[in-house]
């Protein structure tokens, strides 16, 4: 049976219930608590954790390696690139993903403050 999470803003209580609705009565103060929406995705890599770590390490090395670019005259120029360190992300880790308990508007503002404008722009499109 699915379990749903609700948060009551007036008393700051977060609780779970098997009842599915957008709002339910708070267990503590009997005001309306709003449903907290969440999601989870399947891993995008087949295989095990060691394979994932190895692939991410190789991708980090490739993205960090100097790159040779050629100008209009055919002359080669080596460009140093910033170091990359790709790591697996647990989509259940709300703090690491920048998700706040205040809702989508607050998450949008948080992403903007952190300089993650592409993610904020995608979220804004979903919110509209």
Task: Describe the secondary-structure layout.
Elements: E1 4-8, E2 13-17, E3 23-25, E4 32-36, H1 49-64, E5 67-70, E6 76-79, H2 94-97, H3 104-113, H4 117-127
Antiparallel strand pairs: 1-2, 1-4, 3-4, 5-6
Helix pairs in contact: 3-4
Order of H and E elements: EEEEHEEHHH
How large is the share of residues in beta strands?
15-25%
Number of strands: 6
Strand order of the largest sheet: 2-1-4-3
> With helices defined by DSSP (H or I, 4 residues minimum), what is the helix count?
4
Which stretches are poorly predicted, pLDDT < 50 over at least 5 residues?
Answer: none
Q: What gap, in angstroms, lies between the N and C termini?
A: 31 Å
Could you characterize the architecture of this molecule?
With 128 residues, the protein is α+β, with helices and mostly antiparallel strands. It has a domain at 91-128. The chain contains 4 helices and 6 strands. The chain has helices at 49-64, 94-97, 104-113, 117-127; strands at 4-8, 13-17, 23-25, 32-36, 67-70, 76-79. The strands form 2 sheets. It has a 4-stranded antiparallel sheet, with no helix packed on it. A two-stranded antiparallel ribbon has the order 5-6. A hairpin with a 6-residue loop joins β3 and β4. α3 (104-113) runs antiparallel to α4 (117-127). The relative contact order is 0.10. The model has no long low-confidence stretch (mean pLDDT 78).
Tag the structure with descriptive keywords:
single chain; 128 residues; alpha+beta; four-stranded antiparallel β-sheet; two-stranded antiparallel sheet; 4 helices
């Amino acid at each position: 049976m699915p379990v749903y999470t609700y948060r009551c803003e007036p008393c700051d209580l977060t609780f779970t219930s098997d009842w599915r609705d957008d709002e339910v009565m708070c267990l503590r103060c009997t005001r309306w608590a709003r449903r907290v929406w969440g999601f989870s995705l399947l891993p995008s890599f087949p295989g095990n954790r060691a394979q994932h770590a190895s692939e991410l390490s190789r991708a980090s090395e490739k993205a960090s390696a100097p790159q040779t670019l050629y100008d209009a005259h055919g002359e080669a120029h080596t460009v140093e690139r910033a170091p990359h360190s790709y790591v697996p992300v647990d989509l259940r880790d709300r703090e690491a993903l920048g998700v706040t308990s205040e809702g989508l508007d607050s998450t949008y503002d948080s992403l903007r403050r952190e300089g993650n404008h592409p993610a904020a722009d995608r979220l804004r499109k979903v919110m509209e």
